Every structure is written in structure tokens, then in C-alpha cells.
Structure prediction request, 210 residues.
Amino acid sequence: MHKRTMLSAAAIVAVGCIAIPTGAYAANGGSWLLGRSNSETATTTVTSSAGTPLTLNSGSGTPPLVVNRNIRVTNLNADLLDGLSSGSFARNTAKTGVVNDKNLTDTYGARCPSGTVATGGGGYAPYYGYEIAYSGPDFDTTGAIIPNSWVVFDADGWVGLSYVNCMNMTGGSISGAMTYTDLPSTASSQASGANGVAAEPKHTPGTQKR
Prediction:
């Protein structure tokens, strides 16, 4: 083989090493190759004393980060979980409480305080021997449901003692929640009309007088 031919073959081999891409590049101690698959056998740490060390921007509709394991990441603080904020989830320290309708002349039922949600409710007929015709979420004069409320009334439209079960999903206190000791006396006196306590005014079934 002539010398010139040998040089040409060496040049071809050299060009081939540069031009032919491979599946992964070893990056230990070297630079990351953008647009390529980088492989290493040691942990890479990115540190910035001036602020956020890494920002990932992706195209619309594509995730900015993909991982291959479902192992929990220690100290990962995410803003959303499946598109929901932390306020959308109940904590294991969530509290519940019973709130009743203390105003006997407004024809309204019971309301959960701000920051809590209703999980159910109930109540007593306006007087002993009366039957409850409706027990459920309260509603306004148009028939629209009032969120986080409860009301009871009899077939004649008299509103009885209503109470609503309220939950604070963050574990905070529930304003106006009744205690075990005041539940029997308050409920029994208002339900029976004893001690001069009268039932709430009548309303037309299907609408609520306000």
C-alpha cells in the first residue's frame, strides 16, 4: 500500500470517529454535551451562591423534567400535585365541629364559618311531636343552594333547630362549634319550645322566606 493511500485511510477513520454519533457520552470530569445523552458513574451537583441553580423550560404541553423512578425525593417541595394546590387536600390533622343556628328569627339554617366545608347536618323539629319534612342544604329565595349550610323544617314550613357538621381541612379551630356539654341543653330547649324559646317563623316549602 502506498503512503498516500495509508494517509487517506487514516483520515477516513479519524473523520468517522468525529462524525458518527453514539448513544451516550461519558461525562465524568468533562462537560455536558447539549442535545446528547450524557452518561456518568458519579453524582453531579449544581450549586449557585447567587440563587436558583437550575431552571428548566419546556415547550407548551410537555413536562420540563422526566424521571425514570417513582422513589420519593427527599425535601422536594412542589407547588401542585396532579394540578391541585395543597389547599385542595385534607390533612390528617383536619378537625370537625357542629355549628347550630343560634338565631331563631331569621328563618335561615346553620352555616359553616369561613375556611370550613360542610360534611353533613341535621336538626330537630320545631316542637315535640312535629315531623321533619326536609333536612338538607339551605337555599335562598330563588331555590339556589347555599354552600356549606344545612336547614330542617316541618311539613307546615316551620324551621326547626338546624345544625351543620363543618370540617377545617387544615386542622384549625372551627368558630362557633358547639361542645358536648352545651349540645343537649341547647338542642332540647329549642326543639321543644321550652323556657319560652319559640321555633323559627314559617316559610313556604320549596322557597325560603328571608
